Amino acid sequence: MSNTSNGMDKIIVTIFGIAGIVLTYWFFLMKKGRVVAVTGSVDSENLLQVDIVVEGGYSPDNISVPKGKIVKLNFLRKDPSGCLEEVIFPDFKIRKYLPLNQKVVIEIKPDKVGEYKFSCGMNMFHGKIIVVD
Amino acid sequence: MNKIKKTFSVKGMHCASCVLIIEKSLKNIEGVSEANVNLVTEKATVVYDSEKTTDKDLVSAVANAGYKALIEEEFQSEDKERVEKQKELKDLRTRVIISLGLGFLVLWGGFPALMDTAPAILKNFWIQLILATPVQFWAGWIFYRATIPALQHRTANMDTLVVIGTTVAYGYSAFVTAFPQVVQRIGIEPMPYFDVATIIIGLILLGRYFEARAKAGTSEAIKKLIGLQAKTARVVKDNKEVDVPISEVVIGDLIRVRPGEKIPVDGVITEGDSSVDESMITGESMPVDKTIGGKVVGATINKSGSFVFKATKIGQETLLAQIIKLVQEAQGSKAPIQRLADLVSSYFVPVVIMLAIITFIVWYNIGPNPALLFALLNTVAVLIIACPCAMGLATPTAIMVGTGKGAENGILIKDAESLEIAHKVTVIIFDKTGTLTKGEPSVTDVIAFNNGKENDVLQYAASLEKFSEHPVARAIVTFAASLGKTSSHPLDKAIRERAETENTQLFVVNKFKANPGKGLEGEIMIGENPKKFYFGNRALMKDLSINLDAHEAEIQKLENDGKTVMILSSDSDLFGAVAVADTVKENARQGIEELKKLGIESVMITGDNSKTAMAIANKVGISRVLAEVLPDQKEAEVKKIQAEGKIVAMVGDGINDAPALAQANVGIAMGTGTDVAIEAADITLINKDLRSVAATIRLSKKTMRTIKLNLFWAFGYNIILIPVAMGVLYPAFGLLLNPIFASVAMALSSISVVSNSLLLKRYKIN
Question: How many CB pairs under 8 A join A and B?
């Protein structure tokens, strides 16, 4: 501690602190998203669909979909946090309220290849739709 | 074939056989291709052809099977949302009351200035621990509940910061309570900080409660619009009037509306007349007179008379439904100004955690004694004061209120980007006919040159015009695209009407041709002899190399009055001219003046020659005129002005000038609520009042000011207070931020941003 003479504690705190910073950086900012491709799963109308669980984020959060097809995104919010109560797809002009524990279907039909981000209402949680040929 | 899918509740089912019965009876309806009934959810999903099958058929089929179908009214989900939100708010309130109550007891017993007055029992550390624990883990469970799965996704948000901050304070305090001697041995007085943990949780929850209430206000406009929908319609059938739910009205139904009643869907009046209050849709406060043939819009209110109208648009096709959809879409879009806030907020929480660790290291290493306590409390303060929410809320809340405010006043904004660009507009180009003028011209003068007969001139002119409306010959069909534009032009209509009222006999016309933006030509059969005639503007005469000099004075006189002059000629000779005039809208001049006050230059664009154009421009107060512009050149003219470095808005009807609207930075369609116009324009003004253009710009400016203030506040707050919490003011002023005050500031910052956006609601748009 600060009033101990050898100052070992300070060195330990500093080392652990720096390790904590590095760990924080690595843990939050260097993660690589897992991409889930929507290809096989279809509903009764033969439309592509994917179930997205909303709990502390979106899982899956990176969704790869084929171009020009209608894709149903079935959101199920299990997280009561107010932050996640809305999901926004700015490129598709969709802002949708997600009631707790109720499936909400959002249909999109991306016509252009690219990445389309989606996020919660306060832009704290993110995901993206990756449109491929 | 118009296949749609509908899901609705079915009541009265109790076994699997019920499912089969209902499915069978639904499938027996003509047009139904698929029917699935779910016993557990008590819902039926039907795929059917909406041209053959109506909701009524579905309801009666289910009823015939002995059950009840509740075909949901549209937008019902909004209600569900409201109920759930209220439940959430109630739950939040309970947590706030309990955590602040217990927090107060802990504070009383633990806070140096207060503890002398507290009963001894509250000063007991173990009692404090017992009081603080439910606050930490029951009331504060919301934060843990959000943090744990977030960490599994390797993401962090505000809840993460609250969890780390309060857990550190609570954990240290619990440790001090359990092992006071350990703390004492390293030279620190064993003093717990349960008050910090509990009060922070209580205050942040309180902040959330207010924030949630305020946020509900941002989407009020859409709820109001949804609330405008009529519930029932009085359908006239076999001379009987029956009240039916709005979802059961079908196209073609005759509907009776009595004075004071709401018009249920869009349609055309077939019987009676009345005046209708359309303010809820157009923002115009004056009632509008309607008679047979007049269009009525659902959700507007019938004032005086009683009338019957034929439903032409129902359900999602009505103007109100379109408006709701548009506003919902706009509120889901993102303004470019938000990009920076988005970028910052995606790094924000991890960066704050790193800053908190740095704070701990620095205070521990070079802080005054007791260094551990200073390091601990300042770290907690940093974690608590950081507020990413304010940044996330700054733009969207203002956009929601702004677009909602617009919709209330008949200003439909397609997306946040359009609203943002509108405030930067420096030049507004107005299309003349139908935008600055009423678009209902009438023939004012018919002149015959060289001692000819005026009636002949009208006869020939009208023959050509008449032909342009009734394209009988096959050749004309090929011209349909360009022809459609020419013949629907109000000028053409005016000439035809004049001929009709004077009972002018019309000739047969061959080899008809329309030259868009110039005029018409065709061979008129006079007796047995065909004679070629041309009828059009100066540009057409120039193409024919016909010299107008002999009659220039007469033509100019008409043009100087702001009349559009169409000249009738053969290949070589001039026969006469027909002048047509359109009246300027009542509020046009005022609308242009309001724009001038906003520092915006108004430009008029028209196919008319410059003299006619200038006469109109002078009347409305516009000095820059782009005359003799052919319809397909309007887009290029917009480009030219953009090349001057101007941000251009184009105002037109949204039908004939779609390319120009698309080329402009902001395309504004005016005086129309048709699907075509809404599709073509960035902003649609439902009313015909030119002052709405200035109102739109003002709304955009005001919204952008709100957003900028919000962002300034949200960024400034974090940029200033995070360093203060870290202790940068301590060396110079001995100033530190108590974590409890940090939580107050944090809670206030989100609330202030949302409240600032709500202030937009009070803004008087006109």
Answer: 146
Helices within B153-252 (DSSP H only): 158-178, 180-185, 194-218, 220-228
Q: Find the Cα–Cα–Cα–Cα dihedral B417, B421, B422, B428, rounded to 10°.
A: -130
Asked if A74 and A53 count as a contact pair (C-beta separation under 8 A), the reply is no
* ipTM beyond cut 0.85: no
Quote the Cα angle for B155-B161-B165, to 5°.
145
φ and ψ of B309, to 5 deg: -130, 160
SS3 sequence of B232-281: EEEEEECCEEEEEEHHHCCCCCEEEECCCCECCCEEEEEECCEEEECHHH
Active site residue B653: no
* Gap between the Cα atoms of B628 and B520, Å rounded: 16
Q: Where are the beta strands (DSSP E) in B27-99?
A: 32-38, 43-49, 68-70
CA–CA separation, A19 and A49 (whole Å): 42
Instruction: Decide if A56 and B369 are in contact by the 8 Å CB cutoff.
Output: no
Is the Cβ pair B158, A31 closer than 8 Å? no
Least confident among A72-81, B18-27, B304-313, B552-561: B18-27
The count of C-alpha atoms lying within 13 angstroms of the C-alpha of B540, restricted to the half-sphere facing its C-beta, is 25
Of B80, B152, B370, the CB nearest to A99: B80
Contact call for A20 and B371, based on CB within 8 A: no
Count CB-CB contacts under 10 A for residue B46.
28
Look up residue A8 and give its two tokens.
């070992």
The rounded distance, in Å, linking the Cα atoms of B79 and B226 is: 10
Q: Show residues of chain A in contact with B392, CB under 8 Å.
A: 121-124
DSSP string, B614-651: HHHHHHHT--EEE-S--GGGHHHHHHHHHHTT--EEEE
Contacting residues of B for A29, CB less than 8 Å apart: 347, 350
Range list of H helices, B470-551: 474-487, 490-501, 538-543
Contact in structure between A83 and A90 (CB atoms under 8 Å): no
Which pLDDT value is given to residue B481?
29
Which of B84, B346, B353 is closest, CB to CB, to A126? B346
Min Cα–Cα distance to chain A from B187, Å: 8
pLDDT tens for each residue of B425-474: 999 999 887 788 877 666 777 788 888 777 777 777 777 765 543 222 22
